[in-house]
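Researcher: Quick test of sequence recovery. Tokens follow.
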């Protein structure tokens, strides 16, 4: 009949039972008497204590291992959660960056439109200023014409004297002569000049061949004809 294999738990129980026996029962011939039996009992006690210590360590190790596995699973879960949050934050950052780029493009387009609008306003303002100047010149001419008409036709002799004086000034000073130039010279002579009269006088002297007409209509000037003196 074959012997059954003794488990560690059963061996430990047998050792403790043997240790706790009050008197030796085994044959002294087989185990060397009571001294050998006592020695064997002490060995069994020491081995039992060591087995109990190793079992305690194994249990502690298993508990620590389990705690570490739990901690690892929690850390892994947190890492996955943090990774998902990082992905969401990265997606939001990309969306914010794209929104910022769109806003920047909108601001640049608005600034370009504003610059173009300012340029157009400046152009329109220059045109308005030119129209105002033309209106003032026309108004002055109308006022002068009405004044001349209300006071009656001037005498031929006074007109001729005025033309002669103007031609003498042009011969004396030379250079370019405009309507404003004639007005300034007559004002220095203590007269109350009219732009319309000054312009008509220059046109008349040019018609008589004393002056040469130069430049476009809106910036016209006159030079002394060569046959009439220096030009």
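Model:
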């Amino acid at each position: 009949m074959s012997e059954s294999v003794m488990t560690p738990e059963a061996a430990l129980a047998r050792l403790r039972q043997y240790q706790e026996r009050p008197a030796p029962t085994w044959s002294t011939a087989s185990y060397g008497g009571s001294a050998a039996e006592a020695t064997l009992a002490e060995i069994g006690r020491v081995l039992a204590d060591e087995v109990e210590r190793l079992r305690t360590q194994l249990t502690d190790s298993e508990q620590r291992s389990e705690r570490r596995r739990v901690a690892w699973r929690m850390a892994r879960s947190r890492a996955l959660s943090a990774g998902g949050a990082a992905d969401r934050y990265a997606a939001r950052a990309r969306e914010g960056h794209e929104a910022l780029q769109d806003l920047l493009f909108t601001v640049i387009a608005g600034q370009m439109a504003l610059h173009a609008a300012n340029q157009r306003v400046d152009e329109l303002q220059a045109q308005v200023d030119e129209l105002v100047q033309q209106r003032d010149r026309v108004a002055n001419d109308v006022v002068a014409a009405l004044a001349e008409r209300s006071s009656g036709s001037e005498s031929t002799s006074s007109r001729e004297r005025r033309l002669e004086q103007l031609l003498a000034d042009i011969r004396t000073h030379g250079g370019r002569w405009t309507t404003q130039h004639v007005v300034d010279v007559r004002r220095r002579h203590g007269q109350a000049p009219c732009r319309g009269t000054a312009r008509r006088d220059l046109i008349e002297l040019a018609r008589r061949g004393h002056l040469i007409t130069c430049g476009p209509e809106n910036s016209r000037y006159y030079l002394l004809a060569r046959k009439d003196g220096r030009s």
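The beta strands are 211-214, 221-224.
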